[in-house]
Protein: Integrase catalytic domain-containing protein
Organism: Sesamum latifolium
Amino acid sequence: MKFIWKNIVCRFGIPREIISDNSRQFQGRRIQEWCQGLHIRQRFTTVAHPQANGQVEVTNRILVQGIKRRLERVGGNWAEELTSVLWAYRTTPKGSTGESPFSLVYGTEAIIPAELGIPSHRVMNFLKNVMKIS
């Protein structure tokens, strides 16, 4: 519950539902009561049949391929490469929607480091806001 609160609710708000496997940490009385208290619907995939949640399986396959490619090129630890692979995944438009996951969550495309040197309305607003915070 602490992970869900910190990494999902505090970042994105209360979800309408949580889809998970049938493992104990998602089926206990405490998590069920917590979800009920926040009006979160719990849905479970079929035991020993991860294909039931095909969207997650496809995403996991893409992420694993990305990590393997990075490790082949630069070596290192997969956990260190994960954030770069996630960034690439989250900022790439998907064929089904034509939008990136980042833009769907935040309502704008991410400003990538290479863009900072190119004057544009988005970059100027970004830099102006950074200066206010500093």
